[in-house]
Amino acid sequence: MTDMNDATYLRTQQYRDASNLNSRIALHQRFSTNTGDLHRWLFDHLLAALSPDARILEVGCGPADLWRKNLDRLPAGWRVTLTDFSPGMIAAAQSALMGHEAQFSFQVADTQALPFADASFDTAIANYMLYHVPDRPRAIAELARVLTPDGHLFAATNGENNMRELTELIAPYLPTSASDEFPYPLRGFTLQNGAEQLAPCFSDITIERFDDGLRITEAAPLVAYVRSMPSGFAPPPEQIPHFTRDIEQRIATDSAIHITKETGLFSATKAR
To answer: pLDDT tens across 210-267, in order?
Structure first.
């Protein structure tokens, strides 16, 4: 098991609060080549599929950016339960949605053992988090269990080529050659292998891709992104000055660093 599948590490260090995640989000917000907002795009799919009175569960909600960025078009009848296994993330989500408690509830919970009755929700959302879960089959079964018979699952994730140029930038600064677990992010649940993993519990599985990339013109945000990554995936602290100089030189020479993004959204219906 790597750090990125270690629940204790993720809860107490990597996702103790939203700071590491926010460093990574900031890079995407500033330098993405797609001018549309990913969270607005994700929400478009919810609006198209869900009823006006939907009961919604989001697991691994993080700081609730999906909801914070779409409050202006949130249907009045939706009731949303946000969970994360990190108390720090739940605190960040509550802060982000302060004043909207009538439509949102919050709970620390493990997706592998959800504390909800069967058929409690019409829709479940698991965005950019299933690749962290040690026992994915169990988590996917839990998501299906808490859904109504015709319930929907939405699960955003990345593809195997996502951020591949970043891998190439980082690799020379790792203390050893890249391991089988590298590159980042983990490949446990991707656009390429996710449908197969969902199939035992879900049907009508479709995938839509969000066309995007990064054109990075400043070194500092990229360095902050790299420093937010877990040990084993980022250069050790003593290598960061060397890494920074390399990034600055590349930008000075080429005007920008171009990085591939490969991301998309699975949608599925609970299997009968």
So the answer is: 999 999 999 999 999 888 887 667 788 899 999 999 999 999 999 999 999 999 999 9
- The residues spanned by each domain of the chain are 3-163+185-213+262-270
| Opening angle at CA 149, ends 143 and 150, nearest 5 | 95
Residue of 95, 94, 134 lying closest to 112 (CA atoms):
134
Contacts of 85 (CB under 8 A, 6+ apart): 7, 10, 11, 60, 108, 109, 110, 111
| CATH code linked to domain 3-163+185-213+262-270 | 3.40.50.150
User: With contact defined as beta carbons under 8 Å apart, do 202 and 272 qualify?
Assistant: no
Containing 213, the helix (H) or strand (E) segment is: strand 213-216
- The type of residue at 79 is R
| Opening angle at CA 29, ends 80 and 67, nearest 5 | 10
Residue 238 and residue 12: Cα distance in Å, rounded?
23
Write the CB contacts of 235 (distance below 8 Å, at least 6 apart in sequence). 170, 173, 174, 226, 242, 243
